[in-house]
Amino acid sequence: MGFLLSRRWLGFFLAVAVLAVVAWRLGVWQFHRLDERRSENRTIVTNLAAAPLPADEVLPVGRALPEADEWRRVTITGRWDDRHTVVLKYQTRKENPGVDVVTPLVTSSGRAVVVDRGWMVTQNNGQERPRTPTATTGQVTVTGYARVDATGGAATVHDLQTRALSSLEIGRATGHRVYRGFVMLTDQAPTPAVHLRGPELPAINDGPHFFYGLQWWFFALLAVGGFCYLAWDELRQRRATRPSEERERAGAEVG
């Protein structure tokens, strides 16, 4: 077994040890993600089942919507500012290209709630802003799901178009004081003349984290097992060649 202390085998051992530790830790991380996913799922299920609340009791002002309040149902009464309708680009559904139609709903306080009115089919080439259905005039009452704002460059609004929804960015582009977070419309009274397709609810499942975690742990065990096998095979070959070497030495001494 002294060969294990050679430079080649020590280097091999260190490489395998690093690989095994990294793979094991990645597996642990995936199982942590599984716990987080299950916690998020419990929050979503609770929020989806809860009775709607007035939007100003859920949507904050001056701070981000807490993730614990995402998918809470809210109700808002106000008037659509259709002149500042924003198009959310590149929203494909079942392989069909389309956009979401997003319009500020101005409440009696003067502050607006950013509302995703729904999805519509369009060529969605991103070059020309598509024509959107006119919002209902007069006062309306909307019910929908509260969502957390997107961040980053994709949320920037250009020519009343964006690739991700942020109430802050839409407020800047339209000049409205806004509640933080946005709302995905499910119901409106009075009923709109043109119905857009409603929101897609989140998938309530564990995702791939369990199997990814097992995969990483398998890779860790495979690395250790592979090293042990190669070390055993090296030892076996050395033992097999030892008798012939001894016979050759003995013959040389006799000669």
From TrEMBL:
Pfam families attached to this UniProt entry: SURF1
Primary localisation category: membrane
Intracellular or extracellular location(s): Cell membrane; Membrane
Annotated membrane topology: Multi-pass membrane protein
Keywords: Cell membrane, Membrane, Transmembrane, Transmembrane helix
GO terms for cellular component: plasma membrane
TM region positions: 210-232
InterPro entries reported for this sequence: Surf1/Shy1, Surf1/Surf4
Keyword Membrane: yes
CDD domains to which the protein is assigned, alphabetical: SURF1
Superkingdom of source: Bacteria
Coiled coil: none
Recorded family membership: Belongs to the SURF1 family.
Listed name of the protein: SURF1-like protein
Organism (species): Nocardioides mangrovicus
